[in-house]
Design brief:
Blueprint: E1 19-23, E2 28-32, H1 34-39, E3 53-55, H2 57-70, E4 72-75, E5 79-81, E6 87-88, E7 90-99, E8 102-111, H3 112-155, E9 159-164, E10 169-172, H4 174-180, H5 184-187, H6 192-196, H7 212-218, E11 223-231, E12 237-249, E13 252-262, H8 264-299, H9 312-324, E14 331-335, H10 341-350, E15 359-363, H11 372-377, E16 378-379, E17 391-392, H12 394-397, E18 402-406, H13 413-425, E19 427-429, E20 436-438, E21 442-447, H14 451-456, H15 462-468, E22 471-475, H16 485-500, H17 509-517, H18 523-537, H19 564-581, H20 592-596, H21 600-610
Parallel strand pairs: 14-21, 14-22, 15-18, 18-21
Antiparallel strand pairs: 1-2, 1-8, 3-5, 4-7, 5-6, 7-8, 9-10, 9-13, 11-12, 12-13, 16-17, 19-20
Helix pairs in contact: 16-18
Length: about 625
């Protein structure tokens, strides 16, 4: 029976019980049944529906969304009230209808109190009519069924729990309780999402409407999730994989059952495996770089592979190498160009426990200043223009071994600070990267410069030199140890003749005298060149020594541009050579000042400025 005659009565035709037709866009009741007016209020037609919602307006909005999505929906979570604000325990069922394209809601209300009362009366009547024996048999049947179900659930190794359509827990098996630390009393009848699924692992809130478990029975879908977290009662997370399956009572969706397993150990094992694979890949890349470096090093010709000499200076260097070699102490090697500083560095490395790893060599002076940072620290792809691939730097390549920095004074000032920071922290970060890699290496550095003067001039960082120069080794120039020239000549001549395929010539006393009388501004490197040239030009069985005019005392090489430090070093060497030639005399016709064609007072001033004394010549 309809409450009023309206143009919308046709929508209520055949309706049984309290039913409303609502215009959602205007929140307007368009038509009602008499039962609806009896339940809510008289004269409902033309009034707003929202005031009749006592509690759960947000849930009603979710209910409307489900109606729009599926065409119909049912819920008991929305509490209605009469016009007198009396709460109604009801179940509402909604169906979407349209009137000339306009969406309307046909809402049916079921009074649950009346329904439950009728069901109870009916059940009581049946039990009463069936007698006590029938009641006992029914009780026994359900008790046995529940016990069997519990035995099956508790025997399962996976965690299993059920939730009803309101998200309340209906059962939890023993495995789930053990994995989660929650008891039946903690969970049954409570919202399980707020207990075990409330936050993501990163701390972000996990709303229930985003939960796949809730979606599985909201939209009747089976959800399989391979990596999420449940939260234990003690607040600790466990990684889980689970399947959430909707369950039905006949055709009515009543909730979902969730089966899950703890994959924390498996996930941790996979994480360790991934890290191990990353380390293997990094070591492979490092070995490839080391191999390329060693192949390059092999192709570089070296004059000799051992420290040759019988002078006290050389024997002192060998003693220092034996002392510092077995330690991990940083070593700073000083000396003029060509005296064999790289040879001393190799000998120190070969005496150490790191000799099983290659000694990585960085020639700072041969690298463009703009690229020196990349050479030292490495790069990742895209770190700067031209960085086309990931590449470790020399520091990273030397991990576990030794890094030899040849001419450390050629490293730019700002890069020196970066280098010192990496050495002190014992870690390196590639350019363009934010991941630090640990360092375990020994540094051997060399320089031809006057360290104090370079520090004062602001070209060398004093703190870096203090870090590198824990154990200094000075390599004297060849002119200060002429007694080493014969043995060096013999050694270099054997190498040159073997490489050239020539017969070994004899070194005459005259040739040796010429070699020992020369001041060797290029040191052993220059001696090697002279010996090789002599091996080439010698037509007889005697070594022909040809010392070029551009390396005689006082001459200035013009083949390459010289730095101020090079000029000063050359001036120092030239003055020492002149003082030797003059037997230590400054003034007079045969004095060093006359050889240099300057005034004696000028030479005295230069000797004082350069810190030269009789021991130098």
């Amino acid at each position: 029976m309809l409450g009023t005659d309206t143009p919308y009565d046709s929508f209520l035709a055949g309706a049984f019980g309290p039913t409303l037709l609502i215009d959602l866009g205007q929140d307007l009741i368009l038509a009602t049944t008499a039962e609806a007016q009896s339940l809510l209020a008289d004269d409902l037609t033309g009034t707003n529906f929202a005031p009749f919602i006592a509690d759960g307006l947000d849930l009603f909005v979710v209910f409307l969304t489900e109606v729009e999505h599926r065409g119909w929906a049912r819920t008991r979570r929305v509490t209605l009230q009469s016009a007198k604000q009396k709460p109604l325990n009801s179940e509402i069922t909604g169906r979407s209808v349209r009137d000339e394209g306009r969406p309307l809601l046909l809402l049916h209300m079921l009074d649950l109190e009346t329904l439950e009362r009728r069901a109870a009366d009916t059940a009581a009547g049946k039990l009463y009519n069936g007698g006590l024996l029938e009641w006992q048999r029914a009780q026994s049947f359900f008790a046995d069924l529940e016990r069997e179900n519990q035995l099956i659930l508790n025997a399962a190794g996976e965690g299993i729990y059920g939730v009803n359509a309101d998200g309340k827990t209906t059962f939890v098996n023993r495995a789930a309780q053990e994995m989660l630390g929650w008891t039946n009393e903690d969970l049954l009848g409570h919202d399980i999402h707020s207990k075990i699924h409330h936050h993501h692992l990163n701390g972000e809130h996990y709303p229930s409407h985003e939960c796949p478990i809730y979606q599985s029975f909201r939209y009747e879908q089976v959800k399989r999730i391979e990596d999420e977290v449940f939260w234990r009662k003690d607040g600790k997370p466990i990684r889980v994989e689970y399947v959430s399956t909707p369950i039905y009572d006949g055709t009515q969706l009543v909730g979902a059952v969730v089966i899950f397993r703890d994959i924390t150990e498996r996930w941790e094992s996979e994480r360790k495996l991934r890290e191990a694979m990353d380390q293997v890949a990094a070591l492979r890349d490092q070995l490839e770089e080391e191999n390329a470096y060693l192949q390059e090093a092999i192709n570089i010709e070296r004059a000799h592979h051992d420290i040759i000499g019988r002078s006290e200076a050389i024997q002192g260097i060998i003693k220092q190498i034996e002392l510092v070699g077995p330690t991990d102490t940083n070593v700073l090697i000083r000396g003029e160009s060509g005296v064999g500083k790289s040879l001393v560095a190799s000998a120190v490395h070969d005496e150490s426990s790191r000799k099983r790893r290659p000694m990585i060599h960085l020639k700072a002076g041969a690298v463009n200043p703009e690229n020196i940072e990349s050479e030292l620290f490495g790069q990742v792809r895209g770190a700067f223009a031209g960085a086309l691939k990931d590449r470790p730097g020399k520091l990273e390549l030397a991990h576990g071994g030794t890094l030899f920095i040849d001419e450390v004074a050629d490293i730019p000032w700002e890069v020196q600070g970066h280098l010192l920071d990496a050495l002190q922290k014992r870690e390196v970060v590639r350019l363009g990267d934010d991941r630090a890699r640990s360092l375990d290496l020994r540094i051997i550095a060399s320089t031809t410069r006057d360290i104090d003067r370079e520090v004062q001039a602001g070209r060398l960082r004093q703190d870096l030199m203090l870090h590198l120069g824990v154990f200094p080794i000075f390599c004297p120039p060849l002119r200060d140890r002429p007694e080493d020239i014969p043995i060096l000549t013999a050694h270099l001549l054997r190498i040159a003749c073997k490489r050239l395929g020539r017969k070994l010539p004899i070194v005459t006393e005259g040739a040796m005298r010429r070699l020992q009388d020369y001041h060797w501004p290029g040191n052993v490197r220059e001696l090697a060149n002279v010996i090789e040239r002599g091996a080439i030009v010698s037509q007889s069985n005697k070594l022909q020594v040809e010392i070029q005019s551009q390396v005689v005392p006082g001459a200035m090489p013009t083949a390459a541009l010289l730095t101020e430090a090079d000029v000063e070093q050359f001036r120092r060497a030239n003055i020492i050579a002149c003082m030797k030639e003059a037997n230590g005399r400054v003034a007079g016709k045969d004095g060093a000042a006359a050889l240099l064609r300057i005034k004696p007072t000028t030479l005295y001033s230069r000797l004082k400025k350069l810190g030269l004394s009789e021991t130098d010549w």
